[in-house]
Write a structure and sequence with these properties.
alpha/beta, Nucleotidyltransferase, domain 5, 2 domains, 5-stranded mixed sheet, 12 strands, 33% helix, globular, binds adenosine-5'-triphosphate, binds the ligand CC(=O)N[C@H]1[C@@H]2OC[C@@H](O2)[C@@H](O)[C@@H]1O[C@H](C)C(=O)O
């Protein structure tokens, strides 16, 4: 089933990413040889309809009880089908809007929606039906990119590091850190010789989003304005930082809800936002303890780079410059979707996508399941 992608040739891939913020589907086009050649094309986001967001929140609770990755009890099967249909619709809309011919797309890299991630139990569950997506789109789909790594004893996350490494050719000076602040935050340290070290640093925006949603109904703290008005509660922050996770050496990964915001209960909206924002930044600062050498530059991707308060705090916790991905001419909103396109091509070529230094895989290994169009 790996016949379509030939080594050395540029392949046109579409990446479909739905992250832990659970806000929708990011789509990005990438022409790549699966190695150093990267030609980023158009990209777009398609928000989940409100009713899907509500269903996803309950799916997340239902998924807690899963004992095996293929189980779909309760509403999970229905939600999976609905999400897959939304992804197929997103592909159609994207191709139409950008005048791209479906026949020219070689492969789709499909992430799905993570509803459970528990690497110690060798369990990572992404809702999404690769077979259905391949049938609906008529394009070959690579799905389940995390599963083989987890089965082999790896963390199954983060998977973006190999794409970060490919982007690092654009960084003026190494070592550098690519920091993704999504629902959860993850970092890839890249050394002068291209060596990688990657792991989830701690919370990203998810705790802040949940706090703001519960108190105001808004989806996030736009620009970090609420946090800027509040005062960090030092006791609560220190309590949050006592979590054992920060001392654990990498590789390590997190589920969306691995951290509780219990220590900030009772604080005002603004002070709670300030404290959680300080928590995300301090956790990123702690990531430095695991790095072999201080990054010369921190390149920030993901929605968290739009939170000015957070960006300022991150800068106060690290040495050297902190810049948004745009400073390197990249679009910080779509690096993960592009990464999924890149990973799909690497998977089809049977190239490694995870490494001992990124997920704790026993050796560099490929992954993903290729579902041929028919
Ligand atoms: N203007 C903004 N101001 C502040 N925060 C923002 C802004 N825009 C987006 N965000 C934050 O970024 C989040 C979305 O980020 P992103 O799309 O990178 O996450 P994700 O890909 O879903 O998550 P992950 O990377 O963990 O899988 C939103 O939930 C919100 O908290
Ligand atoms: C299991 C899972 O979906 N993890 C996500 C999550 O969101 C950020 C962080 O935690 C990262 O480890 C990962 O996503 C990115 C895309 C990755 O695998 O690189």
């Amino acid at each position: 089933m790996h016949g379509k992608v030939i080594m050395g040739k540029l392949r046109r891939a579409l990446g479909l990413m739905s992250g832990t913020s659970m806000d929708g589907i990011d789509v990005a086009l990438l022409d790549t040889d699966g190695d150093r050649e990267l030609r980023q094309g158009p990209a777009a986001s398609y928000a989940y309809p409100p009713e899907i967001k509500v269903k996803l929140r309950s799916a997340l609770a239902e998924a807690k009880g899963l004992a095996a990755r293929e189980q779909r009890p309760g509403s999970l099967g229905d939600v999976e089908r609905a999400l897959t249909e939304l992804n197929a619709d997103a592909v159609d809309r994207f191709l139409r809007a950008n005048g791209v011919d479906k026949g020219n797309i070689d492969i789709i890299g499909y992430h799905g929606q993570t509803v459970l991630h528990d690497a110690p139990r060798r369990l990572t569950v992404q809702l999404g039906d690769g077979r259905l997506l391949a049938d609906r789109t008529g394009v070959d789909v690579v799905f389940d990119l995390r599963a083989a790594d987890v089965a082999a004893g790896g963390q199954g996350a983060p998977l973006v590091p190999v794409y970060h490494r490919a982007l690092a050719t654009q960084v003026p000076e190494l070592p550098a850190a690519f920091l993704n602040v999504g629902g959860v935050a993850n970092v890839t340290w890249i050394g002068r010789d291209g060596r990688m070290l990657a792991f989830d640093t701690g919370p990203g925006n998810a705790l802040i989003d949940d706090w703001v949603l519960a108190h105001t109904g808004a989806t996030h703290d736009a620009g970090g304005a609420l946090a800027a008005k509040g005062t960090c509660n030092e006791d609560a922050l220190q309590q949050l930082l006592t979590n054992n996770y920060f001392g654990v050496p990498p590789p390590k990964s997190l589920d969306r809800n691995d951290f509780s915001s219990a220590p900030i209960e009772g604080l005002s909206l603004e002070d709670g936002a300030a404290t959680l924002t300080a928590f995300t930044a301090a956790a990123i600062g702690k990531a430095r303890e695991h790095m072999p050498e201080e990054p010369r530059l921190w390149v920030v991707c993901g929605g968290g780079r739009k939170n000015k308060t957070l960006m300022g705090l991150i800068a106060s916790h690290v040495q050297n410059a902190v810049v948004p991905a745009e400073a390197l001419g990249l679009d910080g909103d779509f690096i993960e979707a592009q990464a999924w396109a890149y990973l799909a091509v690497r998977s089809a070529l049977q190239l490694p996508i995870t490494f001992p230094e990124t997920t704790g895989a026993p050796a560099p290994m490929t992954g993903g399941v290729l579902l041929g169009s028919r």
